[in-house]
Specification:
The chain is α+β, with helices and mostly antiparallel strands. It has eight helices and twelve strands. It is globular.
Length: about 280
């Protein structure tokens, strides 16, 4: 079972799981000449509106310095037989002891038209969901980000949004092998601006589906309303697959700006993962 004190490890003990062995089969097949995004770009240019809308500022202590991620209380509940609550670092340690933590180098595409190639560390969401044993009526998974306006100046100022940030996936998307619970980046645990201590990475979808700093994973029967879908449903629908043929109402999705290299490349449908995920959308 998931809950067992002997299987748990704290945040510092989890450092032994980094860097992790690379899983090439679940990594992106990169075109010739494509390089790994420089670490200073991937950790220094972040969408995290809870702190600020200025991507290049999120990492600064003024915005994120009061955000503490160890310990980290979270829960997994809803339509499952074995709901769980506890410390995310213990959960990471449990998955590490079971040999589930690995590295995947994957393309990451933002709906705003920029992209990067990132070495994520983590484990499959499917492996996590197995531990809580979803019930048959669980058709969707809803994710919730931490919300504390006292240490999140962006959320405190932007009261027009429906905080806390929430996202959702269909169950078949959630248990797809590519869907990653990320705990690290560049061979180290996640920094706060990248969604520490635990976030989602859904590589064939636009980046806002990859919810950060998760405090709750809930199995539900009906399609959940998501943060950006509520804010602008014509611009950010629930599905949110990368598709250059589907324009954003205010800009084209034909190409993307490659962070750290100042060039543009054609956008690939499903972010290059078409062979793996296209069958989900027949």
């Amino acid at each position: 079972g998931l809950i067992g004190a002997s299987a748990f490890a704290g945040g510092k003990d989890n450092l032994k799981y980094y860097p992790a062995k690379k899983n090439a089969a679940l990594s992106s097949k990169l075109p010739p000449g494509t390089k790994l995004t420089p670490q200073e770009w991937a950790t220094g240019y972040n969408n995290f509106y809870e702190f600020t809308t200025r991507k290049e500022y999120v990492r600064h202590p003024f915005f994120i310095g009061k955000f503490k991620t160890d310990p980290w209380r979270m829960r997994i509940d809803g339509l499952c037989k074995k709901p769980w609550q506890g410390d995310a670092h213990d959960l990471i340690g449990t998955m590490g002891k079971r040999g589930k933590i690995e590295e995947r180098v994957q393309r990451f595409r933002c709906v705003e038209g920029w992209s990067m190639v990132v070495p994520w560390t983590g484990f499959s969401l499917a492996d996590l969901l197995k531990l809580v044993e979803p019930k048959a009526e669980a058709k969707f998974v809803r994710f919730t980000t931490a919300f504390n306006p006292k240490v999140m100046p962006g959320a405190a100022a932007m009261k027009q949004y429906t905080w806390p940030y929430q996202e959702g996936l269909r169950m078949d998307e959630a248990i797809h092998p590519l869907t990653l619970v990320a705990t690290g980046i560049y061979g180290k645990p996640l920094p706060n601006q990248n969604g520490a201590p635990i976030r989602l990475v859904v590589p064939w979808k636009y980046g806002y589906k990859s919810i950060k700093s998760i405090v709750r994973i809930e199995l539900v029967a009906k399609q959940p309303k998501t943060f950006w879908e509520i804010a602008a449903p014509k611009e950010y629908p629930f599905e949110s697959n990368v598709d250059p043929a589907v324009r954003h109402p205010r800009w084209t999705q034909d190409t993307e700006r490659v962070l750290g290299f100042n060039n543009r490349i054609p956008t690939l449908k499903y972010n290059g993962f078409g062979k793996q995920v296209a069958a989900l959308y027949k």
